[in-house]
Design goal:
- The complex is a heterodimer.
- By secondary structure, chain A is of the alpha+beta class.
- In chain A, strands 1-4-5-8 form a four-stranded mixed β-sheet. In chain A, strands 2-3-7-6 form a four-stranded antiparallel β-sheet, with no helix packed on it.
- Chain B has one domain: GIY-YIG endonuclease (3-Layer(aba) Sandwich), CATH 3.40.1440.
- Chain B is built from four helices and four strands, in the order βαββαβαα.
- The radius of gyration of chain B is 13 Å and the shape is globular.
- Classes of the chains: A alpha+beta, B alpha+beta.
- The interface between A and B is medium-sized, with 23 and 22 residues.
- Bound molecules: flavin-adenine dinucleotide.
- The site of flavin-adenine dinucleotide has 22 residues of chain A, from strand 1, strand 3 and helix 10.
């Protein structure tokens, strides 16, 4: 496979790179180092620019009016979009719009009208509610939130933990156990409106990602009608799995973008900073750190583009997506760590984005399936799917 | 250790002298009137030159005598600030008056 961008992709890459460097990074000089939002007037101005570039709503499929961007090109652009301080979790502060979690491919026509299209238009925001206090790596066994049949609908009771954005969302995709005797075949996916009686955002969960928090949810006799079932009853696990697998590719791309930005900073610094009468760049110890950065970045980029290319061709990409997520999150963490080391004390300060990347990149080894789970997915593929 | 949702430390008079004694760390703070009614919830972020000290010195200068304050040193000043605002909104049905003039984007929280 040839992963060199073609001329059309290169043009888009250059356009986005310019946007990040000329529009986004200068604004960050004035923002709080942990900020995740732009002031309204800047957000509007930048969104107008992405619209003029024809790239607004970047994740919206063509049939719903989005730009016609395949997943490989999307990965190349995601790598560019992450190359600024807030870029790992809020690439370009959301000014490219995008469907994000609204990719509820299992939605029926009625659900598309009520949830998918308003989300694509930017009118509604969703959250993704899978993880529970009892665990997130193995949701098939850990999910304890129950949904019981009542009055042509379902009553949900239980809790969710670490749910991002639930307090600001208008609805969420929530997984609950509908048949306790059936393990992974007893989980159903529900669409829950945030104003449904019995739905509560109980607390903020503070993490290393101090720019934006996660939340803890409680469902207390929360009744929803049958119209809120996404996909089929007891087939929710497949909905979660499909989404998690798809999500691993852009997740990896964000890690690569930040790693590239950190690496570029480290190269600049090493060329400029002298100790003991010599530039850092002339020290073999520093050169080797930079070489290891380069190898980590190229490895992650290769595997992520391979996963994207397989997805683009409609081939199975589960194992590739896991390898991409692993190499990008683990390699990205190492790159940021080495880049901080090369910067010395400055690398630890809030003057530079490295410390934010370091904290946020650490979460990437746990979020969207921890490294151990990715290794398990790969092990199952190479050893045989009957391995459980 | 139990997570403390609300800032419930004793109030201190908001004077330039008290503010000068504060640490230069990052964190969150509340300003109240003489009766203890919260007027404003703020934070000392990564761009404050001397963290809480700078912010409270500025508050003391801008507001003059008659107010009180309390602080919490917290490196997660931003998410803690959002949390305190949402808890205040849940407890009182509205933001503190000086936050309500220019409210940040907030979610809904219903603490147990
Ligand atoms: C900032 C943040 C935001 C998040 N946002 C969301 C969200 O929006 N929605 C959502 O649903 N979840 C979200 N999560 C949750 C995240 O997906 C889970 O934390 C993750 O899936 C791991 O689940 P857990 O924390 O319960 O760890 P557990 O499942 O308890 O596992 C603990 C650790 O054990 C290890 N482990 C697990 N299985 C194995 C194994 N078989 N062999 C060896 N080691 C193993 C892993 O290292 C794992 O990290 C978020 C988490 C964070 C930190």
């Amino acid at each position: 496979m040839d992963f060199e961008p073609n001329s059309e992709q290169q043009m888009l890459i250059d356009q986005v790179r310019r946007f990040v460097r000329e529009e986004v990074i200068p604004l960050e000089a004035k923002l709080d180092p942990d900020a995740s939002e732009l002031p309204d007037e800047d957000f509007k101005r930048l969104t107008d620019k992405t619209k003029a570039m024809g790239l607004f709503g970047i994740d919206i499929p063509k049939e719903f009016g989005g730009p016609d961007i395949d997943i490989v090109t999307r990965v190349l652009l995601a790598i560019e979009m992450a190359q600024h301080r807030a870029g790992l979790y809020v690439p370009c502060y959301g000014t490219f719009g995008g469907a994000g979690l609204a990719q509820i491919f299992e939605a029926n026509e009625d659900q598309k009208e009520r949830y998918l299209y308003p989300t694509l238009r930017g009118e509604k925001k969703p959250f993704f509610g899978l993880t529970e206090p009892s665990g997130g790596s193995d949701p098939a066994r850990a999910i304890q939130t129950k949904a019981e049949r009542k009055d042509n609908g379902w009553v949900l009771n239980g809790a969710k933990l670490f749910i991002s954005g639930a307090d600001r969302a208008q609805y969420g995709i929530v997984f609950a156990r509908t048949d306790a005797s059936k393990g992974r075949n007893g989980i159903t996916c529900f669409i829950i409106d945030s104003d449904t009686p019995g739905f509560h955002v109980r607390r903020v969960v503070h993490t290393l990602r101090s720019s934006s928090y996660a939340t803890e949810l409680e469902f207390k006799d929360c009744w929803v009608s049958d119209h809120q079932v996404l996909g089929e009853v007891n087939k929710g696990f497949a909905v979660a799995n499909a989404r998690l697998t798809r999500q691993r590719i852009p997740y990896a791309a964000g890690c690569i973008g930040v790693a590239i930005a950190a690496h570029e900073m480290a190269i600049e610094w090493a060329k400029m900073r002298s100790t003991f009468g010599e530039k850092l760049a002339n020290r073999q110890a520093v050169q080797w750190m930079l070489v290891d950065n380069e190898i980590d970045i190229r490895t992650a980029r290769h595997f992520t583009l391979e996963a994207a290319e397989k997805a683009r061709r409609g081939l199975p990409f589960r194992i590739e997506a896991s390898i991409a997520k692993l190499t990008a999150s683990e390699g990205g963490g190492r790159v940021v760590d080495r880049s901080m080391q090369i910067h010395g004390g400055m690398g630890m300060t809030k003057d530079l984005p490295l410390e934010r990347w370091y904290r946020e990149m650490r979460i990437r080894r746990v979020g969207e399936g921890p490294s151990e789970v990715q290794r398990m997915v790969i092990a199952r593929e190479i050893l045989g799917s009957n391995l459980r | 250790m139990a997570i403390r949702l609300r800032l419930d430390k004793p109030w201190q008079p908001l004077t330039p002298e008290q503010a000068t004694r504060l640490p230069g760390q990052l964190g969150v703070y509340q300003i109240a009137d003489a009766n203890g009614t919260v007027l404003y919830i703020g934070h000392a972020g990564g761009r404050s030159p001397f963290g809480l000290r700078s912010e409270l010195q500025r508050e003391a200068k801008d507001r003059g005598p008659g107010c009180q304050f309390r602080v919490e040193v917290n490196m997660q000043y931003r998410t803690r600030w959002f949390e305190l605002l949402m808890v205040h909104q849940a407890d009182h049905g509205a933001l503190p008056p000086d936050n309500a003039k220019n409210p940040p984007p907030l979610g809904r929280l219903s603490p147990a």
